[in-house]
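FAQ
Q: What does a multi-component entry look like?
A: The components come first, one per line:
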Amino acid sequence: MTGTSNPAAIAVRGLVKQFGRFAALRGVDAEFAAGKFYVILGDNGAGKTTLLRSLAGLAQPNRGTVSILGQSPRQAARLIGYMAHPSLLYDEFTGLENLRYFAQLYGITSDEPCVSAIHAVGLDPALTRPVGQYSQGMRQRMSLARAILHDPQILFLDEPFSNVDVQSTRGMAELLRGVRDSGKTIFLVTHQAAVLEGIADEFVWMRSGLIVARTTTLTPAQENA
Amino acid sequence: MSLLSPVTRATLLKDIRLEWRSKDALNSMLFFSLLVVVIFSFSFDPNAEESRQIAPGLIWVAFLFSTVVALNQTWARELRNQALDAYRVSPASPNSLFLAKTLGNFLFVSVLEAVMAPLFVVFYNLRSLGPVWQLLLVGALGTYALVVNGTFFAALSLRTRMREIMLPVILFPISIPAIQAMVEATHVIFTGEGTIRFWVVLLLTYDVVFTTASLALFGLILNAE
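Then the predicted structure of the entire assembly, as C-alpha cells:
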C-alpha cells in the first residue's frame, strides 16, 4: 500500500498492537508520502487512535516497526507534532503559559513561536483566562497550537474538530491546508471527514485493526475492502 | 538552578507555579499533618522526657503519610488532560522530568516540614538536648529519601487502577531503612545521647542508591502502558 511517488514520511511494517487479548492493530502495512494530508476513517474500535499513538511513539507495538522519516518515533520526536482528544494542556495556566512550557521541551526559549502558533489557530495570546475556563472549541484550538508551535514536519491529529463549531472547524481545516501546502505531512483521525473533502490528499479506511482501503475522494470504500 | 538542565528547570518552575495556583498538594498535606498533630496530642499527654522518646517516630510517620498525599497530587495533575503525553512525544529526556518532580516534591514537603515543626514543638512540649542544627541535615536527607522513592513509585503506580492505594503499599516497605535512620537520628538529637554519623551515612547511601536506580529505570516507567 504505497501512497505516491514522494519519499515515504511514514513507513509501517506488520504493526500489531494488543491490549490483553484484544488486537487493536492486526498487522498494518503501509507507507505514507511526505507533504501529503491523510485522513484516517473508520468505525469506533477500528484502530485509528491506536495507529496514531503508535506512529507518535506513545503506544509500543507488540510486533512490527514504525519509521518516521527513516527514524524511530522516539528519535524523530522533534519532527512530530501530536494532538490528542484530551487537550494535553494544564488547566491552571493561560494558553501562552502552556505553550511557553511546552516550547522549552523543544529547546525554544523565545515567545515568538508561541505567539505565532496561537495567532495561527485564531486565538488571542493576550488572553489571561486559564485554559480550564476555555470553551471546548478554544481548548481544541489551543491544543493544535501546542502541536504546531515547534514547526514539526509531521502532524498527528486525533479528532481535532470534536466539539468545535462549524466556523472554527472550517478555519482549522484551512489552517491545516496551509500547513500541508508548506510541505508538512498531516495524519488526521476524524469522524467529520466531510469538512476535509477537497483539502485532504487521501482517505485511509480502517476496519478491525487493518487498513482496508485508500481513496482520494470521500467515497464508500466497500468495493476496496 | 544552573546545575539543572533547561527542561528540568522549566518543569520544576512549571510545577511550582501550578502548585502555587492550585495549592492542591500543600493544602492536603498541611491538613493531614495538622490532623495527626492534634489527634495524637489529645491521645497522649507526655512529659518532656516522654516526648523526646515518641516524637521522632510520630514526626516522621506524619511526614511520610503527608508525602504520599503530595506525590499523588503532583502526578495526578499530569494525567488530568493527559499532559504527560505531550511530554512523552517531545524530545525531552525522561530523567529531566524525574529530577524536576523529585525536586518539586522535595520543596513542597520541606515547606510542610518548616510549617509543622514549630507545631510539633508546641503540642508535644519538645526540648532537644542535642544540637538542633543536625535536624536540618537529617531532615534534608530523610525528606529526599522519601520523595526520590515516592516520585518513582508514584510514577510506577500511575496507570494502575487503585494508584492511591498502590503507592503506600509499594512505598512504605521500601522506605523502612530510611524511616528507621530518620527516626533513630532524630532520637539521638532529641536525647543528646550518641552520634548520628551512622544514620546519616545510611541515609546518604540510601539516597544515592535510589536516585541512581530511579534514573536508570524511569524511562521504562514513563513509557510503559
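Q: Is there any commentary attached?
A: Sometimes. For this entry: Residues 48-79 of chain B form the longest helix (32 residues).
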